[in-house]
Write a structure and sequence with these properties.
Elements lengths: L1 E3 L7 H9 L14 H10 L3 H13 L7 E4 L2 E4 L3 E8 L5 E9 L3
Antiparallel strand pairs: 1-3, 2-3, 4-5
Amino acid sequence: MREIDPVETSRAYAFEMWMNAPMPMVTFFRTLDVSALVKAGKKRGLKFNMLMCWCIGKAASGIKEFYMLPVGKRLIQYDRIAVNTIVADSRGEVSSCDSANLHDL
């Protein structure tokens, strides 16, 4: 990890807004057709949440901006990322998955 100058990145505006936000948080919502993933999981005996976490980590690891996070008043670029995923299940309950140290998936 290393400190970087936010002005020299594509995240300059986001960093400025984050630093001035009273409660900074980023949440993504997306509706996806996961039929193929469910089918592949059943065929191979793999849990759906694990497969979703892997897919999200795989997608996120290819986006350079996800490696940069504000820490205090500084912007830090990490060598690896972690993904926390929260998914509503069929009973209306929430399941959580943390995947740490994702790199070159």
